[in-house]
Write a structure and sequence with these properties.
The chain is α+β, with helices and mostly antiparallel strands and about 625 residues long. It has 25 helices and 18 strands. The model is unreliable at about 575-585 and about 625-630 (pLDDT under 50).
């Protein structure tokens, strides 16, 4: 018997003999075993390739379950010998006879890799398409097989996850179908008309019948008509079900039946939708940043536009052209910035206003309710967008609107050089340079709020936004970029090592949320940054113990506790036994100290057990003049 018709199934199929040797398996089974069809069917027992947690199964060396009677579909664990791979599967065993020879079919469904199978649907369907090219010969063989092994095929088909049915030229579904049809197509198709199974509307029914007539009369080759058939089944629960058709031919090479394959691709569709949303959002952010002024003007003018549109509800003689211009401009700006939610709602409102414009009306009249509903949806889209993107709006300083003028830093330095050559007062000229090329230190350090929040969320900890105190200063940030980039290690360590979990903090009389403070002081010749947290502090006993293990020849007991904790800046030092996601590799604080020393600065740590830790960094100024801002 030729078992190749099983090649298209999405579940793993093995056929074994009385010695438990595999005489057939499909590609899915080979993939499950992390092997090849040729190797598995070379004459070795199936248990040399895959083993199951139930040792009594017939597929195991000493098992007999399923030898005489069907072993029903059951979920158990499996493993691959010498592959270090395991998981859960659903397995069923069906004994049958072929030419007076006892054989067993083993159906295995890997329930741990369902997502992977969804992604492979397309490939499986392509294999099915290739299979259909040789379908004439296989129809006869399959018809005979159905007669000789009906119970075997029913067992296989009822275990499939795809809806699979066959219907004739009158649209009547045959008894050959998979049980999955009851879920995927919400019907038992046997004996029913395919039109009712697919729940076609009146219009769709007419088109479908015309398509069927063209197929069965072979007005054109089936390959030319295939893509004209229905592509999707409208599922009552919102599932995304795709449809595909394959032709079966009789002895006279005429199309006698059609095979319908219905596949649930809901998960794949939802994943694609989510991906498109992420791409659209990323595109939108890029456009906000690169078109900062346009974005600012759009956000600032949006409330006025909506207010104007709302006022028109109570106006007797409206200016339809002005309304249309405003809505059309709003839609165009939203499209330019990829703000799709506002763009779509503006488009809906524009269609309502178009009805007035086309009829040269000067009052809302019959479209009043449509206008109010469309405007309400636009207003809700505006409020939702502002709420979701408030942080970004603040960062881009949208409130400054038209006052924003972006100038290349090199242009500022060009004029600085011109002023210097012209003899402008040096101090005044330096003030000009610092004013337009330097950046607020506080504004730049605020970005570490994101680091704190991200690490805290992953560790189920809570932390407030950074509190700043002292004096802000403006710096040419490029000169200190490497230093401030290294600060990421400090803030990751604050969460990973310093802050306790909420329950532990409450037990010690602390609020659930940890606090982090950055104090900045201008010392004229240098500036000092102190980063404090109110966590568990550094235990010098633990540090000293780690140092003794690492460098036993040094007299660590002779050092004070404060001297000992300074060793956290030493290359390769870590208080962790193993490296974690955020620390434990012994390079973080060493990296910070390295950058401080490059700038001829100083760094110290102060800590009190149970109270918290302070990192103090002093850096000499690299500019002749620095502007101090009152914090």
């Amino acid at each position: 018997m030729d078992y190749s018709f099983l090649d298209v199934l999405l579940d793993s199929i093995f056929i074994i003999d009385s010695e438990k040797k595999t005489i057939y398996c499909n590609d899915v089974a080979a993939n499950l075993c992390d092997s090849s069809v040729k190797r598995i069917t070379r004459g070795k027992p199936i248990h040399e390739f895959i083993q199951f947690s139930d040792a009594e199964l017939f597929v195991m060396p000493l098992g007999n379950k399923g030898f005489d009677d069907i072993f029903p579909l059951s979920e158990i664990e499996y493993s691959l010998p010498q592959k270090n791979k395991n998981g859960k599967v659903q397995i069923s065993i069906h004994p049958f006879k072929e030419n007076n020879k006892n054989l067993w079919i083993i159906l295995v469904r890997d329930v741990t890799v369902e997502d992977i199978l969804h992604e492979k649907h397309k490939q499986q369907l392509e294999q099915l398409e290739q299979y259909s090219k040789n379908l004439e010969r296989m129809v006869e063989e399959r018809t005979l097989e159905l007669k000789n092994a009906n119970s075997l095929l029913n067992a296989i088909m009822n275990s499939l996850g795809q809806g699979f049915l066959v219907f004739d030229s009158k649209g009547i579904c045959l008894d050959v179908y998979t049980k999955a049809c009851e879920d995927v197509l919400e019907a038992n198709p046997a004996g029913k008309n395919i039109v009712s199974v697919l729940n076609c509307s009146t219009q769709d029914e007419e088109q479908f019948k015309m398509w069927m007539q063209a197929v069965f009369t072979e007005a054109l080759p089936f390959d030319s008509l295939r893509d004209l058939g229905p592509k999707v089944y409208s599922h009552s629960k919102g599932k995304y079900i795709t449809l595909d058709f394959f032709a079966l031919q009789d002895d006279g090479s005429r199309i006698s039946n059609l095979v319908l394959v219905a596949t649930d691709k809901t998960a794949e569709k939802e994943a694609n939708i989510a991906l498109e949303r992420e791409r659209a959002y990323a595109s939108m952010i890029v456009k906000f940043v690169t078109n900062r002024k346009l974005f600012a003007n759009f956000i600032l003018s949006l409330p006025d536009t909506i207010s104007f549109l709302r006022d028109q509800i109570s106006v007797k003689n409206i200016d339809v052209n002005e309304i249309f211009r405003r809505v059309h401009t709003l839609e165009g700006e939203a499209a330019t910035l990829s703000i799709l939610s506002i763009k779509e709602r503006a488009k809906d409102l524009q269609e309502v206003v178009s009805k007035l414009r086309d009829q040269n009306l000067n009052e809302l009249g019959l479209v009043r309710d449509e206008y109010i509903l469309a405007l309400q949806e636009l207003t809700e889209a505006q409020l939702e967008f502002i709420s979701k993107n408030q942080e970004l709006i603040n960062i881009l300083e949208v409130d400054k609107g038209a006052n924003i003028i972006e100038v290349d830093k090199n242009r500022v330095k060009y004029f600085y050089d011109l002023f210097a050559k012209a003899g402008i007062d040096k101090k005044l000229n330096q003030m000009f340079l610092d004013e337009f090329t330097s950046i607020s230190l506080i504004d730049e350090l605020k970005c570490f709020n994101n680091v704190l929040k991200q690490v805290a969320e992953k560790q189920n900890k809570k932390v407030n936004n950074i509190h700043f105190s002292g004096n802000d200063i403006k710096l040419d940030f490029q000169k200190y970029e490497s230093l401030f980039s290294s600060f990421v290690h400090i803030f990751r360590n604050i969460i990973d090592h310093g802050l306790e979990e909420p329950d532990e903090r409450l037990d010690h009389g602390k609020p659930e949320e940890g606090s982090v403070t950055i104090s900045i002081n201008d010392l004229q010749a240098s500036f000092v940054i102190e980063i404090r947290d109110d966590g568990r502090g550094i235990d010098p006993t633990v540090i000293r113990s780690k140092l003794k293990d690492k460098v036993p020849e040094k007299a660590w007991d002779d050092l004070s506790d404060n001297e000992v904790i300074q060793e956290i800046f030493s290359p390769g030092f870590s208080s962790r036994e193993t490296a974690g996601e955020f620390s434990g590799r012994g390079v973080g604080m060493d990296a910070v100290k390295t950058e401080v020393l490059k700038l001829k600065g100083k760094i110290e740590v102060f800590s009190e057990k149970g109270i918290g830790t302070t990192i103090k960094i002093e850096i000499p100024f690299r500019e002749a003049y620095l502007k101090t801002i009152s914090a």
